[in-house]
Amino acid sequence: MRRQYAQSVVFALTVVLATGVVPSATKAADSLPCVTPDESAAFDVRHLQSRFMVAALACNQRDAYNEFVTRFRPYLMDAGDHLIGYFKRTGRGQSAVNKHVTDLANAAGLRRAENPASYCTQAWNLFWSLRQAPLDIARIAATNPIQSVARPSVCIKTVSAE
After folding, report:
1. What's the predicted TM-score (pTM) here?
2. Percent of the chain predicted with pLDDT > 90
């Protein structure tokens, strides 16, 4: 399961960086079923990881990315499991996971292409922030989404009045 996930990430980055083709990544958030808090955090982490993968390849920040993946491997694996679980739970399956990861890579690649210096500087600053305060990963991920890719909203529990 994780191998398929990794393969979809590599494919997405290959499409963006090798061909320069960046299809639209925007999708209405309303069409996505809501997420649990753990799934929401997984979406945040996936956004951050996609941003970092593009920086690794397009901004020559491979060492920083490798350090990120090594340092946060358990956290990234847990987030990947939650993301896969969300798409399974909602009946969308592996193809939806692959599409979402591709959309993120495409959007991150487009942002980098639009303003390379700014993108690379921002990614480096995020890497540095995580190096200095690794316990802030959830906050850093939540506050740095890739804006052009829709994220589902968190499910709201309703309490009936008795």
Report:
1. 0.78
2. 70
